[in-house]
Each structure stands twice: as structure tokens, then as C-alpha cells.
Write a structure and sequence with these properties.
This protein is of the alpha/beta class. It is 40% helix and 15% strand. It folds into three domains: 7-50, 434 Repressor (Amino-terminal Domain), CATH 1.10.260.40; 62-163 and 296-325, Response regulator (Rossmann fold, 3-Layer(aba) Sandwich); 164-294 and 329-334, Response regulator (Rossmann fold, 3-Layer(aba) Sandwich), CATH 3.40.50.2300. Strand 6 (183-187), helix 8 and strand 7 form a beta-alpha-beta unit.
Length: 351
């Protein structure tokens, strides 16, 4: 087995002190660009791999952060991860990501694994509405936690949230202003905070217009494509059918589009559609999909910045809560005013 390359060997070959090598590797002090590049060139040539375990035992810091997300196949979450990773990389931290598939046992398993690896902090996008039991005895001072789109009143940890209520209210108000009143909504699982807040925005838009919410138009999905399709089919079989649908995330919007096509309806001529979450390809589809831009990257980056402050000891105040604005992006899927000539009572046909 080849002997491990040491910092001292790097220093000799780069003709610098071991302290300079350490500063370059750990980003702990300024090193001139010329010397930094010389050290990095030797590091690459020797294929130097830091012994993070040994370093962690000495410093009680692993320079590593753990992150739990619920669905790595949903394009929204990789954007969050990228935001977290970019900030952590800049600050000299590594990131480990666990995908829970909305499974509480997997969430807990990742949490305990990260604890055993002595990560310096955690970014959590987890499922429960209330603080999970495994966090009840967690030492937040030793291992800081930042939640994304979750807020546990009275629990430790900072939180970064999108303004889900305002975003949904703006989207539904837009449809109401176009003349739609039978607006179906496909929510996420209502045991989740952001799903309930998006439904609340839908309800507030109706109340602001003095209109009652028809419960048959409220359908609970699972934040995935299949549930978007299934619940859209339920809505489209109603008599009279809705004239518009608000789908509360991007994947469910994709399911809605499949359902609309299968029953030979046109969007927006027969049915308007607005999504919460503006997926990258919505702008390139025909019709382009109107959507609430949920600032995924910014949520991740802001969470990481809060966490770095905690891990570095530069901030030790009470838990912080940041709420980031959303933005309604209008495209063709909701472009038409509702015309009285729409065939609202005609049942959809299968194709």
C-alpha cells in the first residue's frame, strides 16, 4: 500500500511552509494567487487526499454538512442542493446529501448517520408537520440545523421559507381576474406545512373576491406526476367541469397536462392551467406554462449562509426565520379570458 502523502511533503515540493499549505487546503488565511496555485499544482500532482477523519478528531470539526431532501427526482430539490453546495464550497465545507422519498424512517436513519459521521451542521427538508422525535433531544448548539420550507414553532434551528401563501394567492387571483370561478386545486399532502400554506393562498384568493370555495374542487395529491394526473382526471370528470386548475407543484402540473391531453381538451382554450414551481422547461413548452417561481436555489443558498454563521460561531442568537418572495410568471397556459362560449357542461371525451 502506498504511503499517505503528507502536508510536509507538499510544502517541500512547493517550496513553502507547512502553514501556507494548510491555509491553502483549508481556506483559513490569505495566500497570494501565485503561491496558492503552486501549492495546488503539487497537490494535484501527488493526488493528495486529506484525512478528514483524523483532522476531525484533532479539531472536533469535520468541515462537512449533511442535507436531507425528500425527492431527488423532483427538479426543484437539486436546485436547492446546488444553492447549499455553492455556498458551502465557497466557505470550505463538503456536502453529503440523503434522499428520504418522504419516508420518516429514512429521514431518521440519515439524521443518525450524519450524527455518527460528526457533520458540523444539517440542512433539513423533512416531512413532519411537528418536530420529529429524533430532534427532540438534539444539541442544536453542537450541531446547528437549518430547515428549508419547514418551520417548527418552539424548536431549535433556523428556517428559510418561500412565501407559499402569497404565491398561491397571486396565482389564483390571476385566474379569478380572467373570469374563472370554478378553479380546481391539486394540493400536496396536507400533513405538510407548505402544502397547507399553498391551499390557504387558494382559499384567501376566493375570500378576497367574496366567493366561497367549492370543496369538490379541492383535491389532495402527493407532489408527484401520477397524483397530478389522477386528481386532474377526477376534476375533469365533474359536471360542470372546472375552467381552470391550479396545481401546487411542477410534477403534478406535468400530470395535469397528460390528463388534459387524454380527454381532448385544449389549454388554455378549454382549460387554463397554473403551476406552483416554475420548472425550467415550462418556458419552452407549447403552451408555455404559467407558474409561480419558487426560489429553489436562493432557498438553499440562504439556508447555507445561515448555517455557516452558526457553525463558525459568528452568530449565536435565537432561531432566525427568513421568508423569500415568490413571483408569478405568466405564459400562454392562462393567457385567455374566460369566454361565455366555453362548453362548461360538456363532459370530456377520452382519446
Amino acid at each position: 500500500m502506498a504511503a499517505r502523502v503528507t502536508i510536509k511533503q507538499i510544502a517541500v515540493l512547493a517550496r513553502v511552509s507547512t502553514a501556507t499549505v494548510s491555509h491553502v487546503l483549508n481556506a483559513t488565511a490569505y495566500v497570494s494567487p501565485k503561491l496558492r496555485e503552486r501549492v495546488k499544482r503539487v497537490v494535484r500532482e501527488l493526488n493528495y487526499q486529506p484525512d478528514y477523519m483524523a483532522r476531525g478528531l484533532r479539531t472536533r470539526k469535520s468541515r462537512t454538512v449533511g442535507m436531507i431532501i425528500p425527492n431527488i427526482t423532483n427538479p426543484f430539490f437539486p436546485a436547492q442542493v446546488r444553492g447549499v453546495e455553492d455556498v458551502l464550497h465557497r466557505e470550505g465545507y463538503n456536502l453529503i446529501v440523503g434522499n428520504s422519498d418522504y419516508d420518516l424512517q429514512r429521514e431518521e436513519a440519515y439524521f443518525r448517520t450524519f450524527g455518527a459521521r460528526r457533520v458540523d451542521g444539517l440542512v433539513l427538508v423533512i416531512t413532519p408537520t411537528r418536530p420529529p422525535h429524533y430532534l427532540q433531544n438534539h444539541n442544536f448548539e453542537e450541531m446547528p440545523v437549518v430547515y428549508i420550507d419547514r418551520f417548527y414553532r418552539g424548536a431549535g434551528g433556523d428556517a428559510v421559507l418561500a412565501d407559499n401563501i402569497a404565491g398561491s394567492q397571486q396565482a389564483v387571483s390571476h385566474l379569478l381576474e380572467l373570469g374563472h370561478q370554478r378553479i380546481g386545486v391539486i394540493t400536496g399532502p396536507l400533513h405538510m406545512l407548505m402544502a397547507r400554506r399553498r391551499l390557504l393562498g387558494y382559499q384567501r384568493a376566493f375570500r378576497a373576491k367574496g366567493l366561497a370555495v367549492e370543496q369538490e374542487l379541492v383535491r389532495e395529491g402527493a407532489f408527484d406526476t401520477q397524483s397530478g394526473y389522477d386528481q386532474a382526471m377526477v376534476l375533469l370528470r365533474l359536471t360542470p367541469r372546472p375552467t381552470a386548475i391550479f396545481a401546487c407543484n411542477g410534477l403534478m402540473t406535468m400530470g395535469c397536462l397528460r390528463a388534459i391531453a387524454e380527454v381532448n381538451l385544449r389549454c388554455p382554450e378549454d382549460l387554463a392551467l397554473v403551476s406552483f414551481d416554475d420548472l425550467e422547461w415550462f418556458a419552452h413548452m407549447r403552451p408555455g406554462i404559467s407558474a409561480v417561481r419558487n426560489p429553489a436555489y436562493e432557498l438553499g443558498a440562504t439556508a447555507a449562509e445561515l448555517l455557516v454563521r452558526r457553525m463558525s460561531g459568528s452568530f449565536s442568537g435565537p432561531p432566525q426565520r427568513r421568508i423569500l418572495e415568490t413571483q408569478l410568471v405568466l405564459r400562454e397556459s392562462s393567457a385567455l379570458k374566460l369566454e361565455t362560449s366555453l362548453r362548461l357542461d360538456d363532459p370530456p371525451t377520452s382519446g
